[in-house]
Write a structure and sequence with these properties.
With 245 residues, the chain is α+β, with helices and mostly antiparallel strands. The chain has a domain at 97-199: Nucleotide Exchange Factor Grpe, Chain A, domain 2 (Roll), CATH 2.30.22. The chain is built from six helices and six strands, in the order H-H-H-H-H-E-E-E-E-E-E-H. It has helices spanning 2-36, 40-44, 56-93, 97-115, 123-141, 225-241, and strands at residues 144-147, 159-166, 175-180, 182-185, 188-191, 193-199. The strands form two sheets. The protein has a three-stranded antiparallel sheet with strand order 1-4-5. A hairpin with a 2-residue loop joins strand 4 and strand 5. Helix 4 runs antiparallel to helix 5.
Length: 245
């Protein structure tokens, strides 16, 4: 019985000694790990030995170049967007341009038929007039508009001058007669109006333009003495030309 207690006691002492050695070994390992492991502050610091040298002026120049390219790209895209919107709006307005242009001769022939109708009160003329008005209303709904001409100033953008004629009643460079109507579709001129343009009347012989008729040989604004001097010179010339008796 005493021998067994002795063995149990010895085993207990042996276990205590082994546990103490194991604890000491773990403590030494923890101390070594703490010494080898870097701290959090050391991890946050950059490794100055690994980073290459940085050329700050070159990086700033590259940044400015990229910024300029970005601004140019944005401006080009904005211009492209505006151009596409403008072209789309024009396309919607002039979608029927080709068809309307081809139908203009039909409208011209209907107008000629009404102009040459012998009796406007006849049923045929009235029927043609109704067809013409209905046809014209359909074209107007698609954007067709008549270019005004007679009585208006000559505009080379919408008028085509076929001839000119002097007129004392109409100011110069005004349309006095229309040979063919002009039409526009929105802001686009489908066909300019063919017109006759007024010109200033020619001056009378011996008169300056704007001189009063009672003063031949004088321009407006000349003093009356000039007329007397002119008459004296004329009389002297006639006396010299007459033969002596």
């Amino acid at each position: 019985m005493g021998a067994m207690r002795k063995k149990v006691f010895e085993k207990t002492e042996l276990e205590k000694r082994l546990e103490a050695e194991a604890a000491a070994e773990e403590a030494s390992q923890e101390v070594a790990g703490i010494e080898e492991a870097p701290s959090e502050e050391d991890e946050d610091l950059p490794n100055l030995e690994v980073l290459p040298e940085v050329n700050v002026p070159a990086l700033l120049g590259e940044r400015d170049a990229l910024k300029e390219q970005l601004l140019r790209a944005r401006a080009d895209f904005d211009n492209y967007r505006k151009r596409v919107a403008r072209d789309d709006a024009r396309l919607r307005k002039t979608a029927a341009e080709g068809v309307v242009r081809d139908l203009l001769p039909v409208l011209d022939n209907l107008d000629r038929a009404l102009e040459h109708a012998e009796d406007d009160s006849g049923g045929l003329a009235q029927g043609v007039g109704m067809v013409r008005n209905q046809f014209f209303d359909v074209l107007v709904r698609h954007g067709l508009d008549v270019i005004p001409s007679v009585g208006h100033g000559f505009d080379p953008h919408v008028h085509e001058a076929v001839t000119c004629a002097p007129s004392a009643d109409v100011p110069p460079n005004h349309v006095v007669q229309e040979f063919q109507k002009g039409y526009r579709l929105g802001d686009y001129v489908l066909r300019p109006a063919k017109v006759m343009v007024s010109a200033a009347p020619p001056a009378a012989p011996g008169l300056c333009r704007g001189a009063p008729p009672e003063a031949p040989g004088l321009c407006r604004g000349a003093p009356p003495e000039a007329l007397v001097e002119t008459q004296d010179e004329t009389e002297e010339a006639s006396e010299k030309s007459d033969p002596q008796p």
